[in-house]
């Protein structure tokens, strides 16, 4: 039973304040978590409460912290932390809004997560086992690893936000992450061969390079794959987070680095050209978060690749259900802080899995040294995970946790790229 809930202002990886929380149980067990924070946030996400004013440049979370210690702590007092649904329902009820804008989704998620971690500690199980269904074998996810960054994560160096590598031929997690490391290193070499400053990294540890165009970014990563010695399109492939909401403008899309303005139709045709020319297996947020007409075009123009909705679905069951009904996209990015509770995030994962949509659990561009995300991916069997690059400790914390789970005493399986055929949507 929950006997104490404590909160404080911690820092995230961008150096911004974020909510830290600890839940203590009657048997003395405790769990704590710090909450991540996005930069290219979807407008339909649950609301992150910031203080405003001058303290911490307006980005303080003292109000959210007070909401944890006050109304949220009161709401969950005495509840069995093993009953996550009850904990989360009590948190939602205390807030009273659907977007958690009264007490803050950052406050609510801190308690939801800390309760789960405290419960796992209380029953002396790893978190991945505590959040799994009884008969499920833990599934290590296929990683999607950031190589080049643009958009809101690299001061607009590229219009598209991430170019990532997916080690699609890997047969284990440790092999997958080593292959991703190889591609990152050989992309650094390819960049240095062009005289580019490849030691500068962006928010998620990817290279932040000014390349004068989006296609040039794909060429550089494709060269990195070739230089790595891995077979392109067979062992290593490319994923892109287009993050199109971040350059949507007046009903169209403006590629600033190329001085071009495209309609939704033209953007889909541009992306189809990239898919034809590069070994691309996954495209995220190819159109704006409310451009459902454009997404219908994408279904026709980009068949065959994983089409991932992040800002589009914002880890929200209603938006995902609408997408499934209209056959929009075929995969969903899941970020617990977009919705505010673990139960709601799990509902999105299960709805997707029932509907043949793939699931990719994701960190945020502002993240922390916590590694609960790795355990959720394994226990919920999401099949894929996206946490940034293989540098910066808030990123490596998740990779290191997955490596430890793989090496540890619990038998696991690994989600090879082909374990889950693309059936949804297309
Ligand atoms: P964010 O970026 O955390 O800044 O939203 C991650 C993503 O867009 O996938
Ligand atoms: Zn995204």
Automatic annotation (TrEMBL):
<feature type="active site" description="Proton acceptor">
    <location>
        <position position="335"/>
    </location>
</feature>
<keyword id="KW-0670">Pyruvate</keyword>
<keyword id="KW-0479">Metal-binding</keyword>
<feature type="binding site">
    <location>
        <position position="310"/>
    </location>
    <ligand>
        <name>Mg(2+)</name>
    </ligand>
</feature>
<dbReference type="InterPro" id="IPR020810">
    <property type="entry name" value="Enolase_C"/>
</dbReference>
<feature type="domain" description="Enolase N-terminal">
    <location>
        <begin position="2"/>
        <end position="131"/>
    </location>
</feature>
<comment type="function">
    <text>Catalyzes the reversible conversion of 2-phosphoglycerate (2-PG) into phosphoenolpyruvate (PEP). It is essential for the degradation of carbohydrates via glycolysis.</text>
</comment>
<feature type="binding site">
    <location>
        <position position="386"/>
    </location>
    <ligand>
        <name>(2R)-2-phosphoglycerate</name>
    </ligand>
</feature>
<feature type="binding site">
    <location>
        <position position="335"/>
    </location>
    <ligand>
        <name>(2R)-2-phosphoglycerate</name>
    </ligand>
</feature>
<dbReference type="GO" id="GO:0005576">
    <property type="term" value="C:extracellular region"/>
</dbReference>
<comment type="pathway">
    <text>Carbohydrate degradation; glycolysis; pyruvate from D-glyceraldehyde 3-phosphate: step 4/5.</text>
</comment>
<feature type="binding site">
    <location>
        <position position="241"/>
    </location>
    <ligand>
        <name>Mg(2+)</name>
    </ligand>
</feature>
<dbReference type="GO" id="GO:0000015">
    <property type="term" value="C:phosphopyruvate hydratase complex"/>
</dbReference>
<dbReference type="Pfam" id="PF03952">
    <property type="entry name" value="Enolase_N"/>
</dbReference>
<keyword id="KW-0456">Lyase</keyword>
<keyword id="KW-0964">Secreted</keyword>
<keyword id="KW-0963">Cytoplasm</keyword>
<feature type="binding site">
    <location>
        <position position="365"/>
    </location>
    <ligand>
        <name>(2R)-2-phosphoglycerate</name>
    </ligand>
</feature>
<dbReference type="InterPro" id="IPR029017">
    <property type="entry name" value="Enolase-like_N"/>
</dbReference>
<dbReference type="InterPro" id="IPR000941">
    <property type="entry name" value="Enolase"/>
</dbReference>
<feature type="binding site">
    <location>
        <position position="364"/>
    </location>
    <ligand>
        <name>(2R)-2-phosphoglycerate</name>
    </ligand>
</feature>
<dbReference type="Pfam" id="PF00113">
    <property type="entry name" value="Enolase_C"/>
</dbReference>
<feature type="domain" description="Enolase C-terminal TIM barrel">
    <location>
        <begin position="137"/>
        <end position="422"/>
    </location>
</feature>
<protein>
    <recommendedName>
        <fullName>Enolase</fullName>
        <ecNumber>4.2.1.11</ecNumber>
    </recommendedName>
</protein>
<feature type="active site" description="Proton donor">
    <location>
        <position position="204"/>
    </location>
</feature>
<dbReference type="InterPro" id="IPR036849">
    <property type="entry name" value="Enolase-like_C_sf"/>
</dbReference>
<feature type="binding site">
    <location>
        <position position="161"/>
    </location>
    <ligand>
        <name>(2R)-2-phosphoglycerate</name>
    </ligand>
</feature>
<keyword id="KW-0324">Glycolysis</keyword>
<dbReference type="GO" id="GO:0004634">
    <property type="term" value="F:phosphopyruvate hydratase activity"/>
</dbReference>
<feature type="binding site">
    <location>
        <position position="284"/>
    </location>
    <ligand>
        <name>Mg(2+)</name>
    </ligand>
</feature>
<comment type="similarity">
    <text>Belongs to the enolase family.</text>
</comment>
<dbReference type="InterPro" id="IPR020809">
    <property type="entry name" value="Enolase_CS"/>
</dbReference>
<keyword id="KW-0460">Magnesium</keyword>
<dbReference type="GO" id="GO:0006096">
    <property type="term" value="P:glycolytic process"/>
</dbReference>
<dbReference type="InterPro" id="IPR020811">
    <property type="entry name" value="Enolase_N"/>
</dbReference>
<dbReference type="GO" id="GO:0000287">
    <property type="term" value="F:magnesium ion binding"/>
</dbReference>
<dbReference type="GO" id="GO:0009986">
    <property type="term" value="C:cell surface"/>
</dbReference>
């Amino acid at each position: 039973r929950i006997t104490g809930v404590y909160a404080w202002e911690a820092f995230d990886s961008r150096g911004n304040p974020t909510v830290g929380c600890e839940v203590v149980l009657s048997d003395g067990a405790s769990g704590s978590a710090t909450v991540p924070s996005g930069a290219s946030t979807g407008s339909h996400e649950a609301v992150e409460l910031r203080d405003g004013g001058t303290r911490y440049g307006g980005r303080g979370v003292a109000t959210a912290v007070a909401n944890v210690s006050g109304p949220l702590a009161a709401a969950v007092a005495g509840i069995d932390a093993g009953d996550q649904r009850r904990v989360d329902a009590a948190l939602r009820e205390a807030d009273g809004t659907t977007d958690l804008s009264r007490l803050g989704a950052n406050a609510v998620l801190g308690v939801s997560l800390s309760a789960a971690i405290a419960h796992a500690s209380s029953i002396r199980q790893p978190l991945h086992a505590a959040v799994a269904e009884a008969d499920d074998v833990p599934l290590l996810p296929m990683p999607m690893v950031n190589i080049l960054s643009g958009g809101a994560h690299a001061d607009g160096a590229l219009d598209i936000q991430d170019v990532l590598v997916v080690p699609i031929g890997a047969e284990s997690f440790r092999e997958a992450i080593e292959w991703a490391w190889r591609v990152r290193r050989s992309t650094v070499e390819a960049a240095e061969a062009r005289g580019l400053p490849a030691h500068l990294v962006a928010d998620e540890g990817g290279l932040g390079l000014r390349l004068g165009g989006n296609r040039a970014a794909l060429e550089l990563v494709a060269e990195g794959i070739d230089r790595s010695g891995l077979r392109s399109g067979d062992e290593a492939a490319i994923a892109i987070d287009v993050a199109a909401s971040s350059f949507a403008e007046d009903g169209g899309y403006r590629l600033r680095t190329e001085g071009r303005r495209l309609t939704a139709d033209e953007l889909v045709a541009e992306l189809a050209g990239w898919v034809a020319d590069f070994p691309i297996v996954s495209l995220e947020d190819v159109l704006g978060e409310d451009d459902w007409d454009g997404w219908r075009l994408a279904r026709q123009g980009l068949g065959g690749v994983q089409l991932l909705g992040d800002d589009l679905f914002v880890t929200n069951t209603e938006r995902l259900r609408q997408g499934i009904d209209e056959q929009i996209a075929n995969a969903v990015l899941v970020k617990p802080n977009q919705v505010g509770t673990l139960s709601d995030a799990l509902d999105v994962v299960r709805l997707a899995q029932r509907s043949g949509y793939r699931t990719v659990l994701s960190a945020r561009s502002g993240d922390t040294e916590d590694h609960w995300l790795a355990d959720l991916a394994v226990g919920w069997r999401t099949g894929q995970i996206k946490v940034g690059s293989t540098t910066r400790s808030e990123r490596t914390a998740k990779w290191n946790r997955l490596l430890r789970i793989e090496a540890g005493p619990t038998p696991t399986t690994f989600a090879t790229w082909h374990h889950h055929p693309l059936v949804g949507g297309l």
